[in-house]
């Protein structure tokens, strides 16, 4: 592989990181007398608008340092979402072609975003065929399949190197409860929860990791039963998280707790977030928040003080026509009102009545 080109490619990616400021750690307002603080790590402010900016950077560097990417390599990924948007951004930076293999029903917003960064979208009718089709395309054009679902947990440095966990702990340092009791995240590839789970053990923190799971996802069943071949065969309705099969980057042994969250509850939580903070977020952030509130209610009941950190994974603008559209919610049969009432009651009383 052309080493001079690889050196320049790595410099370009590192320069991009050096130009980027770290993402904010936002405070969600809770009654001070509870003695519990809730924070959201705002990953929507990355240049490509989601937590996947970090993963895309790691996957590109991983391919470069493994000698798998050169000046004429076409990059391929199986993703309909945030990862493909971020990978298209880095591919363009390196002057490489990028192809995202995705289900035909992918939202036009996501397709436009990938094409905005110069990527090409390749559609499959059966979502489960995304992986094999991406592999076939990579073989056919002698390209490189970035394969987020397999390499997310391997390409991300769990010891530090400004990974998302190290950034959170650095930003919590001056808070009244600097070591969180819980960190709450969702799982798509499983890479983010693996990074947090490994980091807190490596740094010998008492922090526990809770993974929230939407409807139809296989992760909860796999974690509960220990069966990694657990599958639902059903697609998730919350973009970015929940999978019909257990992905290779899902590491159940570093997860202390899992909570299943109804999809309509995720919708209710992002609307509450917008009302209470003005921040607009995607569905997976609602899933995170709903889980975080339940853990806070449990801490209150136990008379425990502390802090809880979760993620604002991507911006809500991408979901203006779906999650934030009442007609769309009604068409999908999402009854948000009941869950909104649970959230209002919780923020009033601290009790979780669901
Ligand atoms: C919006 C959003 N939230 C959360 C996640 C979950 O992250 P991970 O893949 O690291 O499990 C993803 C993953 O694609 C995502 O796109």
UniProtKB/TrEMBL annotation:
Q: What is its EC number?
A: 4.4.1.1
UniProt keywords (A-Z) are: Cytoplasm, Lyase, Pyridoxal phosphate
Q: Which Gene3D superfamilies match?
A: 3.40.50.1100
Q: Which domain of life is it from?
A: Bacteria
Do you know which InterPro entries this protein is assigned to?
Cds1, Cys_Synth/Cystath_Beta-Synth, TrpB-like_PALP, TrpB-like_PALP_sf
Q: Which PANTHER family match?
A: CYSTATHIONINE BETA-SYNTHASE
Instruction: Explain the purpose of this protein.
Output: A cysteine desulfhydrase that generates hydrogen sulfide, H(2)S. The H(2)S produced by this enzyme modulates the balance between respiration and glycolysis, and contributes to redox homeostasis. Probably eliminates toxic levels of Cys (which can induce oxidative stress).
Q: Which HAMAP family match?
A: Cds1
Which protein, by its recorded name, is this? Answer: L-cysteine desulfhydrase Cds1
Query: Which organism is this protein's natural source?
Result: Amycolatopsis acididurans
- Species classification: Bacteria, Bacillati, Actinomycetota, Actinomycetes, Pseudonocardiales
